[in-house]
Amino acid sequence: MANEVLIPFQDQQKPTSHSPVPEGLNLIVYEQKIVDGFDGIAQTRNTRYSTATFPDAFTATSTVDTIFVCAEDQSQKKQSWPPVEILEAQSSSDKVHVFNSQDVVPSFPSEDSKLRATSLNIRRGGNCPNSLQVLEQLLSERDTLQLHLVSPLPATGSSATQRVISSFGEQSNIDFSHCVYREESTEAASSYIMRSEASGSRTLVNYNDLLEMTEDEFGNIARGFNPDQETWWHFEGRIPDTIQSCIRLLRNVLPKATISVEIEKPGREGLPELAAQADVVFYSRSWAESRGHKTPEQCLRVEGHQKASLALCTWGEDGAAGLSRSTGESIHCPALDKSGRDISVIDAVGAGDTFIAGMLYGLICHPDDWTMGAKLGFAVRLATVKVQREGFDGLGRDMLGTEIGGV
C-alpha cells in the first residue's frame, strides 16, 4: 500500500470531484455502510474505489427536515385528477444530520493520539429525502403533483445548501422556494461516526448550528394553502411535542387535512400520543418489538389509534401488515421476490422509507381505484425491489406495470 493514500474529509478542505490526487498516488476510498436493514438486522457493505480524481459519489449531500407535495392548480390542467392533496413530512434538525461521515478505525483511539482510518464513508442521511426521491420516481405525467421541499437550510448561497439542491438530480422538479434559509449559517448539521473494528463500537459526535424550524414558521407555510383544499401531511416522528403542536395548527388552519405520522425509534417519549393524533400511522418493527409485540398484527391490534383510520407496520422479511379501523379489515403482505425466489439483500438502506413512499403513492394517487390490499402489496414489493439494489435509482421505472399491487 506504499503507493496508495486514503484522503479523509476535513472541515476546511473537502475533496471534490475535481480534487487532484498527489502525483504518483492513487486515491483509495472505501465506502462502508452499516445500517439497520428493512428486516431490522444490521448489515455492513464495503465498496472499494480507486480513481484519479475524487469520485462524484462521495460528494457530501444533505438530509432535510421537512418535505411536502402539493397538486398544481387543476384549472390549468387538462388531465383529470382527484381533489387537490398535499403531502408534508417533518423531522427534527437536531436529530437528522446533513453530512454523515463515518470513519472505521482499527481500535478506538486514546486521547491526543494519531490513528489512520481504514475506511471512510460520507453520505446523505435521513428518512424524508429518501421517501421524496422514491415518490418523485413513481409519479407519471398524468399525476399533476408538484413536489416541494421545506427545511431549515444554511445560507442561500452556501455550498452546503447547493449540495442539498443538487443531491436530487438535475432532472428533479422539486421546488425549494419554501425552505427556511438561515443566512447566518454556512454549514449544515453533521454527524461524525467512529467505528472500532476491534470492538464494533460506534462513537458519534454531532454538530448542528442551524436553528430548528419554529411552530410560527411552520404555521406561515401552512397558512399559504387554501383551507378548502383537501390536503395530506405526513410527519416523521422525531420531535413528538413539536409535531403535535404542528398537527393541532393544521387541524385549525386546514380543516380538510389528512395527517399521517411515522413511529420508528424505540424509547422516544411522546410517540404513542403523537400516533393518537394521526389519521394514518406507520409503525416500525423495532418500535413494535420494543413494546413487546411479536407480530405486526399484534402491534396494530393493541396500540391505540384514537383517530387513525389506517395503521401499518413493517416487519422486514415478513413484509408488512395493515389494519383499517373503519372496516376492521386486517391485511398482511409478505416480502417476496417477483419470481417467488428468496430475496438477496444488497442494500437495505432506506427500505422503510421506500415502503412509506409506496403507501403514500397509493393513498394519494390511487385512493379509489386500488384496494387497500393492492396499495399494501405495491408498497411491500417496492421495498423488496429496493433492497435488491444499491440506492434508489430506477425504482419507479422497474415498478411500471406492477400498480395492481401484490394481493
Automatic annotation (TrEMBL):
- Per UniProt, the ranges with Polar residues bias are 10-19
Q: What is this protein called?
A: Carbohydrate kinase PfkB domain-containing protein
Q: Which organism is it from?
A: Gibberella fujikuroi (strain CBS 195.34 / IMI 58289 / NRRL A-6831) (Bakanae and foot rot disease fungus)
Tell me the PANTHER family matching this sequence.
KETOHEXOKINASE, PHOSPHOTRANSFERASE SYSTEM TRANSPORT PROTEIN
Annotated region Disordered: the residues are 1-20
Q: Which InterPro entries match?
A: Ketohexokinase-related, PfkB_dom, Ribokinase-like
A Pfam match is PfkB
Limits of the Carbohydrate kinase PfkB domain: 108-391
* Tree of life domain: Eukaryota
